[in-house]
């Protein structure tokens, strides 16, 4: 957490149970929650109901996609293979401005870390 010009440590979750409880599932939706926002990193937790799709979009900074529960498929434009299957503990790096789609093959909670200087509205996806 940024306090003036000094960055301070910020506990986002002490354990997996606390992390998962911070974003409950919403039937038929993708439900986002911001866990942390700083000058150089932003952390989101997305709860996907089974079968939900986050349609093709891009983010203005590089991201790390990390399922912490369940399974998702991340389709990244220009990648070979284009579809990456991720389960809990998997990690996928997606460069800035690269179009991608996320499909929940089952209920899933996915942590997304936005890396680098965060423009004012970097967590707004562009689709």
TrEMBL record:
UniProt cross-references to InterPro entries, sorted A to Z: RmlC-like_jellyroll, RmlC_Cupin_sf
Name of the protein: Cupin domain-containing protein
């Amino acid at each position: 957490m940024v306090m003036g010009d000094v960055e301070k440590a910020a506990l986002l979750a002490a354990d997996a149970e606390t992390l998962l409880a911070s974003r409950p599932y919403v039937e038929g939706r993708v439900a986002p929650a911001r866990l942390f926002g700083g000058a150089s990193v932003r952390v989101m937790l997305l709860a996907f109901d089974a079968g939900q799709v986050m349609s093709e979009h891009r983010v203005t900074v590089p991201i790390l996609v990390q399922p912490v529960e369940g399974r998702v498929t991340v389709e990244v434009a220009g990648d070979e293979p284009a579809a990456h299957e991720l389960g809990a503990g998997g990690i996928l790096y997606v460069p800035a401005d690269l179009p991608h789609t996320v499909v929940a093959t089952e209920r899933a909670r996915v942590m997304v870390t936005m890396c680098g200087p965060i423009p004012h509205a970097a967590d707004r996806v562009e689709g």
